[in-house]
Design goal:
8 helices
């Protein structure tokens, strides 16, 4: 019986190993979002993750006035025909400006899901093979294998095994 040795499946994943498990995990990590945006910028599709993040932010918005302003901002930035960072979603034409007068937290959900799936089945898998991801992974591994990290790990294991 291995007591005091947590099995590897129970260890919390961090960094690239966590990002590689799912797009959800990647988007929960600010550093992951930063690297993913860097990658999407090179692919000229950064607006997808920016739209997704804006929608997440929008769901937390309180108060009708703020919601109207934010909804309009999201519409003008990502969904209108003149949008500077237009996202490619179906049904965006049906989202006309009248809906912006009566915003509700999930008004962009369908579009957000479309963009999420687009990222998940398209850019996310390429991101995991990208130089940005692999270099970040490499630097993490070097940090883990550095003498300082190992002494810290040994100290930690001494503390936990008492």
């Amino acid at each position: 019986v291995h007591e005091g040795h947590p099995s590897s499946s129970h260890q919390t994943l961090k960094g690239t190993s966590k990002w590689a498990t799912s797009l959800e995990n990647l988007l929960e990590d600010p550093e992951g979002v930063k690297r993913f945006r860097e990658f999407l910028k090179k692919e000229f599709s950064e607006e997808n993750v920016l739209f997704w993040l804006a929608c997440e932010e929008f769901k937390k918005t309180q108060g009708k006035k703020q919601m109207q302003e934010k909804a309009k901002e999201i519409y003008m930035t990502f969904l209108s025909s003149k949008a500077s960072s237009q996202v490619n979603v179906e049904g965006q034409s049906r989202l006309n400006e009248t809906i912006l007068e009566t915003p509700h937290p999930l008004m962009f959900q369908k579009l957000q899901d479309q963009i999420f799936n687009l990222m998940k089945y398209d850019s996310y898998s390429r991101f995991l093979k990208s130089e940005i991801f692999l270099n970040h992974k490499k630097s993490e591994e070097q940090e883990e294998n550095s003498p300082e990290a190992q002494t810290a790990a040994k100290r930690a294991s001494r503390i936990y095994n008492t």
